[in-house]
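Example S7 (structure tokens).
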């Protein structure tokens, strides 16, 4: 640092004839220096206050960061979903806790250093300025009081000389020896000499103080610079630590592999999560209670043609005879497209079964698919069916007749009748036999027609033996075509 240069001091113009008692205030310079020391003392006091409040602020920041730490101090909710090893979310939060605690501690350390290392520098400087003020008061200030006292003494003797000189003129020179103006004049000169000595001594003291002030102020500035440098080092170190800790938090978060948590989650829950390589569920592989109960297995199922009531043309539908003795009609055998609710349901024990005529046979009864209440008021309808082959018609006729005449608990092992069996198909006496139509026969088999006359419901018609139905074309489902 450059050494302070001595400023050009003001000079006073002197004349040969000077007043014995100058009109200047001897304490003016002392007061000026005193005010300047007060200014420096207040400036240093401002720095002390700044450091004190800064220290308290860092202490408060330490407490505030402890509050921040509490937001991530508790274990993570549902923390078992995160991998507890380093490198994941749990490790990231542990890093955040550690760095946040470090930031809090750095603020406490900064506050401690400001209070114990930096603030005393300015407190000592403040004390030095106070001591300089005392030195000024006891030194130059005391000399100024001596000058004022000497000037007052000289002033009294000059005034006494003036009184005695006036008396000399008025009395014609007659007076006592002690009032002789000559004696008084020599006394004034003596006291004026002492006054000037005090003035010169005080002047020399003030010059010394004035010269020392340049060095003292340089010392003040150097001390301030040193203190502020130490202050900057402390707070910048804390700021650098805070920056590094925040950088470590961010770096830890950015280093987490994108699939780290998911991979660990899958490994921990591999018994619960869905295996993407496993095949999808199918209805065919699903089992449920009573799925294979004997009452759920159809006695015969397949497609038949039924003659319409209005258009008189045949429509193909899917029909099932169940062990519960119902003949259900469906649009198709698809269980998935829509809810498979029967379009038509006949309770076979209440129906009249006609004889087989080629591929055709008829059933007369009421549709009970809408419920019991509507069934009471519904009319009986004669439904004319046509199988794909004559043998299929015989098979359907035999099983329908068996369901109509047998008990509810009797479920045949196979819906196809044994070869040479004689089914009985009761029909109403007043019912007309449906006219036979040309149908396709089974490959390698001849069509077998039932006797031409309809059988009565009471079984008055003589039974005619018919050929046994062929085995089902669908394995495990007898009679399905």
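Recovered sequence:
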């Amino acid at each position: 640092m450059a050494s302070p240069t001595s400023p050009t001091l003001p000079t006073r113009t002197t004349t040969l004839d000077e007043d014995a008692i100058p009109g200047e205030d001897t304490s003016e310079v002392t007061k000026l220096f005193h005010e300047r020391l007060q200014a420096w003392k207040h400036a240093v006091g401002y720095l002390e206050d700044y450091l004190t409040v800064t220290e308290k602020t860092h202490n408060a920041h330490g407490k505030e960061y402890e509050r921040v730490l509490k937001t991530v101090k508790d274990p993570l909710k549902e923390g078992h979903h995160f991998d507890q090893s380093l490198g994941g979310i749990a490790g990231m939060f542990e890093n955040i806790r550690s760095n946040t605690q470090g930031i809090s501690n750095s603020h406490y350390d900064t506050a401690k250093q400001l209070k114990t290392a930096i603030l005393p520098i300015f407190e000592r400087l403040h004390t030095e300025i106070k001591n300089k003020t005392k030195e000024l008061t006891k030194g130059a200030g005391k000399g100024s009081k001596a000058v004022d006292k000497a000037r007052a003494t000289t002033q009294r003797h000059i005034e006494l000389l003036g009184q005695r000189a006036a008396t000399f003129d008025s009395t014609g020179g007659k007076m006592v020896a002690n009032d002789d103006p000559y004696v008084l004049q020599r006394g004034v000169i003596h006291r004026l000499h002492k006054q000037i000595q005090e003035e010169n001594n005080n002047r020399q003291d003030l010059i010394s103080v004035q010269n020392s002030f340049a060095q003292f102020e340089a010392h003040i500035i150097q001390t301030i610079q040193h203190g502020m440098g130490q202050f900057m080092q402390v707070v910048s170190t804390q700021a650098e630590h805070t920056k590094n800790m925040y950088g470590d938090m961010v770096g830890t978060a950015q280093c987490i592999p994108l699939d780290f948590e998911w991979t660990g989650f899958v490994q921990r829950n591999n018994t619960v999560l869905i295996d993407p390589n496993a095949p999808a569920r199918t209805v065919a592989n699903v089992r449920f209670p009573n799925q294979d109960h004997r009452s759920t297995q159809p006695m015969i199922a397949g497609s038949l043609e039924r003659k319409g009531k209005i258009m008189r043309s045949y429509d193909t539908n899917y029909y099932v005879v169940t062990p519960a003795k119902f003949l259900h009609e469906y649009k198709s055998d698809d269980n998935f497209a829509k809810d498979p609710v029967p379009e038509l349901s006949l309770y076979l024990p209440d129906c009249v079964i006609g004889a087989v005529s080629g591929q055709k046979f008829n059933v007369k009864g009421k549709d009970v698919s809408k419920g019991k209440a509507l069934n009471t008021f519904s009319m009986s309808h004669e439904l004319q069916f046509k199988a794909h082959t004559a043998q299929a018609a015989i098979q359907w006729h035999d099983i329908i007749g068996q369901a109509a005449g047998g008990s509810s608990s009797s479920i045949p092992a196979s819906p196809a009748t044994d070869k040479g069996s004689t089914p009985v198909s009761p029909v109403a006496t007043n019912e007309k036999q449906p006219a036979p139509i040309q149908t396709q026969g089974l490959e390698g088999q001849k069509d077998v027609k039932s006797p031409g006359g309809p059988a009565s419901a009471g079984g008055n018609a003589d039974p005619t033996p018919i050929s046994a139905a062929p085995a089902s074309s669908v394995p495990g489902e007898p009679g399905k075509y």
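Notes on this example. The first strand starts at residue 300 and ends at 307.
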